[in-house]
Write a structure and sequence with these properties.
This protein is mostly helical and 132 residues long. It has 6 helices and no strands. It has a single domain, classed as Tetracycline Repressor, domain 2 (Orthogonal Bundle).
């Protein structure tokens, strides 16, 4: 799951100094860049593998671990802003789920519109949560 490590490294690099909104913005932008660079022919390899993996298999566990790593980075970033651990983990999971779904929609539609929409809404939600 090399791509999972790349995304986690990107998130960690941004999240170490940035606020959650900036981190989410970078996450969405990275996916937009990926889709455009691959002319919408390549989405998230982890999703592709996870969709084909049997529940409980080593492959499914590796996919889960990759997604969990992304959630963890986002949750840590949110906790630094005063969000409780439990809520930060839920928000991190929501962010990853929303962005991954938007990647799929963007890919099949051939436009980054769904990613832009999800990014905007996630920023709005986070601004409310962070009282900004």
């Amino acid at each position: 799951m090399a791509y999972g490590h790349q995304i986690r490294a990107l998130l960690e690099t941004v999240a170490i100094t940035a606020d959650p909104i900036t981190t989410v913005r970078a996450f969405v932008a990275a996916w937009e860049d990926h889709l455009i660079a691959h002319e919408f022919r390549a989405g998230c390899t982890i999703v592709a593998v996870a969709n084909e993996a049997a529940f409980g298999s080593t492959v499914a566990a590796a996919a889960s671990q990759a997604f969990d790593g992304w959630v963890s980075v986002l949750a840590t970033c949110l906790q630094r802003e005063g969000i409780s651990r439990e809520r930060a983990e839920r928000l991190g999971s929501m962010i990853v789920s929303a962005v991954e779904g938007a990647v799929i929609l963007s890919r099949v539609r051939g436009t980054t519109g769904p990613l832009k929409d999800v990014g905007y809404e996630l920023e709005t939600i986070l601004a409310g949560v962070l009282h900004r």
